[in-house]
Design brief:
The chain is an alpha/beta fold and about 325 residues long. It has helices at about 50-60, 125-130, 145-155, 170-190, 200-205, 215, 240-245, 270-280, 295-300; strands spanning about 5-15, 20-25, 35, 40, 65-75, 80-95, 105-110, 135, 160-165, 195, 210, 230-235, 250-255, 285-290, 305-310. The mean pLDDT is about 95.
Length: about 325
């Protein structure tokens, strides 16, 4: 199907004070009728996605958007048509949303959304809404258990929302012991802990998910954990991003965006290269490599789910 058949849609993820997201039910007689979706509509000639979002939400919901940022961009082929969803997280608006076209509305927490009740193209949006924007990958020194856990505790106190336990220096037994202690800290803070180890170890420790290195990703033939756990992968090119999506992974880390101390010889993608690769991805993608919390807005502008990092998020050695 040629590119001229691509239907470009702007959609908004509108949250209330309790974190619930507004969804609307599609009419029964249209494409994907009867399913729930995120409000929005087709771009008109000459419109930008943000202009279309403002217009569509005013027409459909009688609200005026005063703040929004990119959330995720999804391409999907339904067979009879192709769609490009430009989704923004609406951070501020004026008015009270109402279904001006008679469409039923509902407010639902992302974790309570049932993906099967949404069009296939909308399902990665649900994943993006469930995932946070700041992703810590743990650093040195896992051999110093007490110091390591103190650093992790300090990171959680600073508002980190997702943690990957990376400790390649440890054998499986030592890693498992550190993981068990880390799970206790993360559960107390309400933060998911992802293990960068084999899926079997992650499942056995009752962790919240597993992270797969790129080399392991290329050897997999199926998703390694059940749908109630998070599964992510390290990716460096379009092929690896496509493979992670085909295996139904929840997210990817794409690197390196900038020069990093851990991989000084790796050629950085730069923000333009990152954005080019993310534009064809169909799952949430974190920017990784030489970045920190100060890069969040830049990451959002280039299509990222958020920023992941080691040195940019891992606290300095706690003082004795």
């Amino acid at each position: 199907m040629s590119e001229r058949h691509l239907i470009h849609v702007a959609a908004g993820a509108i949250a209330d004070a309790d974190g619930r997201i507004l969804i609307a039910r599609r009419p029964d007689g249209v494409h994907q009728g009867g399913l729930w979706e995120f409000p929005g509509g087709k771009l008109m000639p000459g419109e930008t996605p943000r202009q279309a979002l403002d217009r569509e939400l005013a027409e459909e919901l009688d609200i005026r958007v005063t703040g929004a940022r990119p959330l995720i961009c999804i391409r999907h082929d339904y067979g009879d048509r192709r769609v490009l969803l430009d989704v923004h997280r609406v951070t501020a608006y004026e008015g009270v949303p109402e279904g001006r076209e008679g469409q039923p509305l509902d407010w639902v927490l992302p974790q309570d959304m049932q993906p099967d009740l949404f069009p296939a193209a909308d399902r990665p949006i649900i994943t993006a809404l469930r995932l946070p924007s700041r992703y810590l990958i743990t650093g040195a020194d896992p051999h110093d258990r007490d110091g390591f856990l103190a650093r992790l505790d300090a990171s959680l106190a600073q508002g980190i929302e997702l943690v990957q336990l990376r400790a390649h220096e440890l054998n499986d037994q030592a890693y498992a012991a550190l993981a068990e202690a880390s799970i206790v800290l993360c559960r107390a803070a309400g933060v998911p802990l992802i293990l960068n180890r084999s899926p079997a170890i992650a499942a056995g420790l009752d962790a919240d998910g597993v992270h797969v290195p790129a080399a392991q990703l290329r050897r997999l033939g199926e998703r390694p954990l059940l749908a109630d756990r998070l599964v992510g992968a390290s990716c460096h090119d379009a092929g690896e991003l496509a493979l992670a999506a085909a295996l139904d992974f929840d997210y990817a880390l794409l690197s390196p965006v900038a020069v990093t101390a851990s991989h000084p010889g790796a050629l950085p993608l730069g923000w333009a290269g990152f954005a080019r690769l993310v534009a064809s991805a169909v799952l949430p993608v974190y920017a990784l490599g030489g970045l920190g919390p100060g890069d969040l807005e830049l990451a959002f502008a280039h299509g990222a789910q958020g920023v992941a990092g080691i040195s940019g998020f891992w606290p300095a050695q706690p003082r004795a």
